[in-house]
Design goal:
Length: about 450
């Protein structure tokens, strides 16, 4: 896992440039549509960089950015990554002998129409805001269109207002002076309507595998244009489609329509998804830990704890709940998972640790209040990896144990029967000086058996 100071340090310099200009409606789009997805700090970082770009073009150190925002470099890097991922920022880096130089190129946001018809960001906004708030926000961007069918178009034409130029004024020399490139090499004119776009890495979907499963007798390969390829990556990511499923949808569309476009492919996949998932939007519970945040990526576990880390990193929260119960997770439990991942922005791996901890400590019940309290605490701690979450879970257990002991000593604690739930090995506080009794040895054996059965059931 790459730590922030390996990527940027306070003395590294940066310059900011803009790809276009911000209009009044863009500010509303950033605040109402992008901010719920990237968070308040990333939105603030974007506006800070935009102000700096319009003030001057001087090169600054990242220490300056830390002073202005009053945030740590780790938080600034996290906010920067969110802006890059959502299509609002491009970052360029040059490594020198003693430091690194960055250029931050700000991208204007999508227009309201492009955002809500994108079929990608709008789904994530829907999941973040909920149906009622999503519709309210979308309606705030509506523009009333007047019915002009009973009116006559009386708009003046150019030639009705302006006189034509004399032939002497249209010399070839004048035309050449107008059309030649008079801009310096390091400058460009502002463009209106240029915006950034979300780009998904090719590792998110095996495109070649999908192509190999498409019959060339049904769909000619030239149909898969670069624009359609980009849409396929996005649709596969949103709807969690495997190459086999995507190839079937493409062949169905082309066979029925004789052509294929981004829009008719999206409609076909939406129809298929509704049939498969009973009108539900894609659930985040099916996502797994991102590769950059996997502590054991490409490594073999060397201990029982590492085996559990690997398990939490490889399965989705949905699969973890399914492993625990042996049945399909309930809608109530999936809503708690969505709260952790959407409202508190926890990663799938961290969510897995939280679910495992609460189930182990709470008689196999996912208590809403307990989930929300721990999730908000871990979010404030900025836990992103499984080991970080496991350490926080150990702290939670220690604090609960201390609280129980204090209540017992004060005499105000009424003993209740403790649920017969085995606590995972990784939750136990490691102590080197404890004397192992026959009873503790027996408990340890039971814990090992529990962990082995859990790992075996997840394979």
């Amino acid at each position: 896992m790459t730590v922030h100071f390996q990527e940027v340090v306070p003395v590294d310099t940066y310059s900011v440039q803009c790809k276009g200009v911000l209009h009044e409606v863009d500010h509303k789009v950033l605040a109402m549509l992008y901010q719920p997805l990237v968070g308040a700090f990333a939105h603030s970082l974007y506006m800070t960089l935009w102000c700096e770009a319009n003030m001057d073009q001087q090169t600054k150190k990242h220490q300056h950015l830390m002073n202005v925002t009053q945030f740590s470099l780790k938080d600034i890097l996290s906010g920067r990554k969110k802006l890059e991922a959502i299509g609002l920022l491009k970052t360029f880096k040059k490594v020198g002998e003693t430091s690194r130089e960055y250029i931050y190129e700000l991208q204007p946001p999508l227009s309201p129409n492009a955002f809500f018809t994108d079929g990608f960001l709008s789904i994530y906004l829907f999941n973040r805001l909920g149906k009622a708030k999503f519709n309210e926000v979308r309606e705030s961007f509506y523009i009333t269109q007047f019915d002009v069918s009973d009116y006559k178009d009386v708009t003046a034409s150019f030639n009705e207002v302006f006189t034509s130029l004399h032939p002497s004024e249209m010399s070839s020399k004048s035309y050449a002076e107008i059309t030649e490139n008079v801009l310096p090499e390091d400058a460009a004119l502002h463009e209106k309507g240029v915006h950034g776009k979300v780009v998904l890495g090719e590792e998110t979907f095996d495109f070649e595998s999908m192509v190999n499963q498409i019959s060339t007798f049904i769909v000619p390969k030239e149909v898969l244009t670069p624009k359609l390829k980009e849409a396929i990556y996005k649709l596969a990511y949103i709807y969690q489609l495997q190459p086999t499923d995507m190839s079937k949808q493409i062949q169905n569309v082309y066979y029925s329509a004789g052509e294929i476009s981004v829009e008719n492919l999206r409609r076909e996949i939406q129809k298929w998804y509704r049939f498969e998932h009973e009108e539900r939007l894609p659930v985040l519970a099916l996502k797994t830990q991102p590769v950059p945040l996997k502590a054991l990526q490409g490594m073999e576990p060397k201990s029982k704890e590492e085996e559990l880390i690997k398990y939490f990193e490889e399965v989705s929260p949905y699969q973890l709940l399914e492993d625990y119960s042996g049945t399909t997770p309930s809608e109530v439990d999936l809503k708690l998972v969505a709260y952790c991942m959407l409202d508190q922005n926890l990663t799938p791996g961290v969510t897995n640790v939280l679910l495992d901890y609460v189930l182990s400590e709470n008689d196999m019940k996912l208590a809403k209040g307990l989930i929300e309290r721990i999730a908000s605490h871990w979010a404030r701690k900025k836990a992103q990896t499984v080991p970080e979450a496991m350490e926080l879970a150990r702290d939670e257990k220690r604090k609960y144990k201390d609280w129980q002991e204090k209540k017992t000593k004060s005499g105000s604690y009424r003993a209740n029967k403790k649920p017969n739930v085995t606590v995972p090995d990784w939750l136990k506080q490691e102590t080197g000086s404890n004397i192992k009794t026959e009873e503790s040895s027996s408990t340890e054996d039971e814990n090992r058996k529990w962990l082995e059965s859990l790992l075996n059931s997840s394979k």
